Amino acid sequence: MGLIVTLNDVAKLANVSKMTASRVINHPEQVTDELKQLVFKAMKELNYQPNFAAKALAANTTRIIKLIILEKVDTVEPYYATLLMGVAQFLNSHQYALQVVTQKNAGIGDCDGYIITGARRDDFEWINELNRPTILFGENRHQYDFVDSDNKYGTFLATSAAINDGYEHIIFFGIDLKESFEYSRERGYMDTMQKAGREPQIVRFSNHSSQSQNYIQEHWQSFEKNTCFICSSDRLAIGVERGIQHMNGQIPEEFGITGFDGVFLDQISEPKLTTVKQPVMEMGSKIAELLLKKITWALPLDEDHHPNRTNRIEVVFSPELIRRQTTRNYHLN
């Protein structure tokens, strides 16, 4: 039997301190690429395999992150599949396991922290009772750390493009939720319309394509040609597309459509949907990264302590307008 390789051996070969070697292994996001290369090279040469389970037990941690989805997944499943991929890949690269929970009561249990998405106003009393580091996916007015895309900027892009494309009438189809992201999307549309001297028109639905499709068909006579529909989700946009096609309207010559999300649904519609694309995979990776940092900050301080943090974390990604076949001047993406 060969000699047991220890962390001291790795540190010595890499010519770094034991604490630095430990940090490279347990918190690689906190060290430089040069240090990581030195330590990982030494680990490979010595065939050193960290025992993460033992480390977690000794530190009274679980190395488990729970992602709690507080809305009906069937309305947004492609979106969440992409988000989960971003979260899971980052956690896996840092030796953390991910558990997905779809009920609040099932979310309480052993873990090191929570990622919460789909939170509504009624959920925050329950969220306040969680006694682990927590970060939300989605902007909120409750002072919780969050990661989101710039919703207001997204609808600014969509509305500005519709104006520049020559659509005379521009209508916003929103999601019937009193939540921060929806307020921001509506505000981006309204501000852009008002600055252009246009009259805003807003209609709200639950986030189902059948709702917007039925509305288009039932109110068809009220829509003039040269109208563009700015939708707060790709689901609503697909419903608008189907409704216009059912009524034999011409897309994009007579009617334009822009969605919001840019995750899978925009690419399976026919014609393909112009949309405001959110970088959901990157957002998932970032929210996992930030939660692990919060967990580190919550640990007892040692001689190489982490600074105290009092400011709220707000990370906002810029969305991108992807032009396809449901608006004029489209590009074949």
From TrEMBL:
Residue ranges of every copy of the HTH lacI-type domain listed in the record: 5-59
InterPro entries assigned to the protein according to its UniProt record, in alphabetical order: HTH_LacI (IPR000843), LacI/GalR-like_sensor (IPR046335), Lambda_DNA-bd_dom_sf (IPR010982), Peripla_BP_I (IPR028082)
Record flagged with keyword Transcription regulation: yes
A Pfam match: LacI
Molecular function as annotated in GO: DNA-binding transcription factor activity; transcription cis-regulatory region binding
UniProt keyword annotations, A-Z: DNA-binding, Transcription, Transcription regulation
UniProt xrefs under PANTHER family: LACI-RELATED TRANSCRIPTIONAL REPRESSOR (PTHR30146), TRANSCRIPTION REGULATOR, MEMBER OF GALR FAMILY (PTHR30146:SF154)
Protein name: HTH lacI-type domain-containing protein
Species: Lapidilactobacillus concavus DSM 17758
